[in-house]
Every structure is written in structure tokens, then in C-alpha cells.
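User: Design a sequence. Structure:
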């Protein structure tokens, strides 16, 4: 009888433990899944932000060239290409890295043309801006995914 009572108590304690453990474990797994999704989304946003910063720097350089302030444009060029090199090394996506490296190859040409005050450098800079803009555009929706349309206005 004592053995039966002892086993019953052990089974009840074990059952109570698992009754509390399983829901908590499921919440932990779900929280970890949500955290992973949030970290992935954060990394994507940070990568896109770096591209926007590059675009901003390049836009300032283009404005300096348009204003024929080649000395200022040369300083901005150094900042832009240094930032571009850093961003390229941090980029995980091979396609994005390839595009950034293609823009990075323009450094010597841009530096030389700014030094001589060549206004035709605007074409090269605008081409680089177009490449950066294409990289920072949102990815198209997967095939078969329904596009999200804005909610219709409420009826009066």
C-alpha cells in the first residue's frame, strides 16, 4: 500500500511538472521563432538603410558636381567610396555585393575626373545612383502571393 501511494505521488508530481513544462516550452519555442523572424527582418532593414545612406552621400556629391564645386565633391567622393567599401564587406547577399563592387570600381575614374573638373562625370554618378536605387527597391512579391491592397474607404 505504501509503495502504491508513493508511486501515485511520484506520478502526480511528474504529471504536474509536465503539465507546467509543456506550455512553457511551447511558448519558448514560439518566442524563439518570432525572435528569429524579427532578427531577419532587422538585418534586412539595416542593409536597406545602409543603401539609403549611400544614396544620400552620392546625391550630395552629385549636387556638388552640378554646382561645379569639384573640391567639395572630391571630399564627398572619398567619404562615399569608403562607406561603399565598408557596406560591400558587410553585405551577405552575393548579388547585392556584386552590384556594390561594380560601383566601387568607379572610384579611380571618379577621383581622376573630379580632380580635373570634368562635368561629364555626372553621367557616371547618375548611373551609380540608378544602380543603388535598384538595389534598395523592395523585392517583388513571391510568385502566387496575393498583393496586399489598401483597405477601401468606409461607406457613409
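Assistant: Done.
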Amino acid at each position: 500500500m505504501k509503495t502504491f501511494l508513493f508511486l501515485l505521488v511520484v506520478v502526480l508530481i511528474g504529471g504536474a511538472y509536465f503539465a507546467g513544462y509543456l506550455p512553457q516550452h511551447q511558448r519558448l519555442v514560439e518566442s524563439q521563432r518570432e525572435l528569429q523572424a524579427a532578427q531577419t527582418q532587422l538585418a534586412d532593414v539595416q542593409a536597406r538603410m545602409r543603401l539609403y545612406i549611400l544614396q544620400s552621400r552620392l546625391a550630395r556629391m552629385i549636387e556638388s558636381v552640378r554646382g561645379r564645386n569639384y573640391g567639395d565633391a572630391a571630399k564627398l567622393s572619398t567619404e562615399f567610396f569608403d562607406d561603399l567599401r565598408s557596406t560591400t564587406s558587410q553585405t551577405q547577399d552575393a548579388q547585392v555585393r556584386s552590384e556594390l563592387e561594380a560601383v566601387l570600381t568607379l572610384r579611380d575614374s571618379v577621383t581622376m575626373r573630379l580632380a580635373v573638373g570634368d562635368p561629364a562625370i555626372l553621367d557616371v554618378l547618375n548611373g551609380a545612383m540608378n544602380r543603388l536605387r535598384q538595389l534598395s527597391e523592395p523585392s517583388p512579391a513571391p510568385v502566387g502571393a496575393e498583393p496586399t491592397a489598401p483597405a477601401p474607404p468606409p461607406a457613409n
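The chain has a mean pLDDT of 85. The first helix runs from residue 2 to 66.
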